[in-house]
């Protein structure tokens, strides 16, 4: 792991240099994705099947997954897994239903009604990654907030494989209430959702994480459809003092490192002794980790221990990092909540381990990464609605306002605007 020490200014400068060095030229990926999207627009289902053969090494006769196949997959999953998914669903619903927003109307002035309608999106696409692991929890996290918002139809796409779609993914989709599932991955899956094909219906918004090709495709189709965010590799930041448990910290850092060789794991502390213990414990725990190869590369290439000069400096540094997941392992952790300005999801105290949020607490695990927590929020019910404004004026209310409206319109050189109001009183 890389160690950083020095003044807060020096540490922040070094972090900035690290971020800049980590940024790669993705022009080649951008061009590849652009070509894939254009091919899907041109050839529809046939392009999807061609790309499945090329990238996933699977020849598909049918892009969709039948209801019968979903039910069979559900039945094959162990009962205790179904029970756990159902419990997670209950927690996700109980948390996210509090995010639901409602219409409002006001009549603060005589003859004037103003309001806002909260309208669910009609159809949403959810991308569920394939690759090195199956993530049924991501199905629940993406689909359930959409259902709570009132989305009429949820379309799920996930990469095909020679063995078929994982049973636990199908089970999670059934539990969450997905309406249709298509076995399509990568940039071509995003293109299909954005533009529609003979089989895949066009959606209004696409959510869900994926690799660099998926992220790039989401960026390129934005405007044709809405997207949730451009997600990068997983990351965790931990704030800890000398009283923290190094075993817990090491385990939590590794919980993110095992996701991806590009995962970023950062400990910020004012205790050199704790830092040494944590580093030692990381390499000890790595030895028995099934995904050791992945986690070890992430630790070596993107792991960082930062020694801060004070508690205040620790928060300043972490707020600049703006991590996807932030654990606060300090004495009386809850008292520091309002010192946190930038973080996707916050975990307070030594027993709020990050995987609690990944699977069970009900908070969402689709989160802003790569410092975007400075301006993005976790996925929520609010991502699946749009707002329409409402205005009603009586003639008398407009008479009272018309001179001010006409004055402002002419100040902007828009004579027709002024006349549109005045003509009602001629």
Overview of this structure, please?
With 426 residues, the chain is α/β, with parallel strands linked by helices. It has three domains: 165 residues, Nitrogenase molybdenum iron protein domain (Rossmann fold, 3-Layer(aba) Sandwich), CATH 3.40.50.1980; 184 residues, Nitrogenase molybdenum iron protein domain (Rossmann fold, 3-Layer(aba) Sandwich), CATH 3.40.50.1980; 32 residues, no CATH class. It is built from 16 helices and 14 strands. A six-stranded parallel beta sheet has the order 1-11-10-9-12-13, sandwiched between helices. Helix 7 links the parallel strand 5 and strand 6. Helix 2 crosses helix 3 and helix 2 packs across helix 8. The longest helix is centred in the first third of the chain and has 18 residues. The protein starts with a strand and ends with a helix.
| Global Rg | 25 Å
CATH names the topology of the largest domain as Rossmann fold
User: Would you tell me the structural class of the helices and strands?
Assistant: alpha/beta
Count of helix runs: 16
Gap between N and C termini, in Å?
77 Å
Question: Which residues form runs of ≥5 with pLDDT under 50?
Answer: none
* The CATH top-level class label of the largest domain: Alpha Beta
Mean pLDDT: 95
Keywords: Amino-acid biosynthesis, Coiled coil, Histidine biosynthesis, Metal-binding, NAD, Oxidoreductase, Zinc
GO molecular function: histidinol dehydrogenase activity; NAD binding; zinc ion binding
Pathway: Amino-acid biosynthesis; L-histidine biosynthesis; L-histidine from 5-phospho-alpha-D-ribose 1-diphosphate: step 9/9
Cofactor: Zn(2+)
């Amino acid at each position: 792991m890389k160690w950083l020490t020095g003044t807060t200014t020096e540490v922040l400068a070094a972090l900035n240099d690290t971020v800049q060095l980590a940024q790669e030229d993705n022009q080649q990926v951008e061009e590849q994705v652009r070509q894939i999207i254009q091919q899907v627009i041109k050839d529809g289902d046939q392009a999807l099947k061609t790309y499945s053969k090329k990238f996933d090494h699977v020849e598909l006769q049918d892009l969709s997954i039948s209801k019968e196949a979903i039910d069979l997959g559900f039945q094959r999953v162990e009962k205790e897994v179904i029970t756990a998914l159902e419990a997670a669903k209950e927690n996700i619903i109980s948390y996210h239903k509090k995010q639901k927003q409602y219409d409002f109307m006001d009549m603060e002035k005589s003859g004037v009604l103003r309001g806002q309608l909260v309208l669910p999106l009609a159809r949403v696409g959810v991308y569920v990654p394939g690759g090195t692991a199956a993530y049924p929890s991501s199905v629940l996290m993406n689909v359930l907030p959409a259902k709570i918002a009132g989305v009429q139809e949820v379309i799920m796409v996930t990469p095909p494989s020679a063995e078929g779609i994982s049973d636990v993914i199908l089970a999670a989709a059934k539990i969450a209430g997905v309406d249709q599932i298509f076995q399509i991955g990568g940039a071509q899956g995003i293109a299909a959702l954005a533009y529609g094909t003979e089989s895949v219906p066009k959606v209004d918004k696409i959510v869900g994480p994926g690799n660099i090709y998926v992220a790039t495709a989401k960026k390129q189709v934005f405007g044709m459809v809405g997207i949730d965010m451009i997600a990068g590799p997983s990351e965790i930041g931990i704030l800890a003092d000398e009283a923290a448990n190094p075993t817990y910290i090491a385990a939590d850092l590794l919980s993110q490192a095992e996701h991806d060789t590009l995962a970023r794991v950062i400990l910020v502390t004012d205790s050199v002794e704790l830092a040494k213990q944590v580093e030692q414990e990381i390499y000890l725990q790595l030895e028995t980790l099934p995904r050791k190869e992945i986690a070890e590369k992430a630790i070596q290439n993107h792991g960082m221990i930062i020694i801060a000069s004070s508690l205040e400096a620790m928060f300043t540094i972490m707020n600049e990092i703006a991590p996807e997941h932030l654990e606060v392992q300090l004495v009386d952790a809850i008292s520091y909540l309002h010192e946190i300005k930038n973080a996707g999801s916050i975990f307070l105290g030594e027993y709020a381990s990050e995987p609690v949020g990944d699977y069970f607490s009900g908070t969402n695990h689709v989160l802003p990464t790569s410092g975007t927590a400075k301006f993005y929020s976790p996925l929520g019910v609010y991502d699946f609605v749009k707002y329409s404004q409402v205005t009603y004026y009586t003639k008398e209310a407009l008479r009272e306002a018309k001179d001010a409206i006409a004055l402002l319109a002419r100040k902007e050189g828009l004579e027709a605007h002024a006349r549109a109001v005045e003509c009602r009183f001629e």
